[in-house]
Amino acid sequence: MTAQPTDPASVPDTGPYEVIHLGDEAAVVVPMADFLRLRALERHAPAELLEEAELEAAFAGYSQWVAAGRPGAISHEEMAAELLGEPGAD
After folding, report:
1. Measured CA distances, 15 to 43, 73, 88 (Å)
2. C-alpha count within 13 angstroms, C-beta hemisphere, residue 47
3. What sign for the dihedral angle of Cα 37, 22, 19, 76?
């Protein structure tokens, strides 16, 4: 698998970070210090804040997916299950 640069218009604002494609997935290249800080925040944040952040991230991903013209690839129920983190959503 090789990493390919991503069209900047097809991803949300990522600030100073580079976005690449790994297969069908987009990835953001971040400095190790930023990654370690994120991991520390995840360990120390209250569960309700983590849940809120996960919902916000899922909605942002869905909005990006819609903006890319991909609606209809999965059912409304499947998308709702994914956004709500229900079992079998993968």
Report:
1. 24, 29, 33
2. 0
3. negative
Distances (CA, A) of 77 to 58, 74, 86, 89: 15, 8, 11, 9
Residue 64: what residue type?
Answer: Q
Task: Evaluate if residue 77 carries a pLDDT over 90.
Answer: no
Q: Which residues pair with 20 in a beta bridge?
A: 5, 27
Asked if residues 60 and 7 have their Cβ atoms less than 8 Å apart, the reply is: no
CA dist 24 and 69 (Å) reads 15
pTM over 0.90: no
Report DSSP letters for 3-70, one per residue: EEE--GGGS---TT-EEEEETTEEEEE--HHHHHHHHHHHHHS-HHHHHHHHHHHHHHHHHHHHHTT-
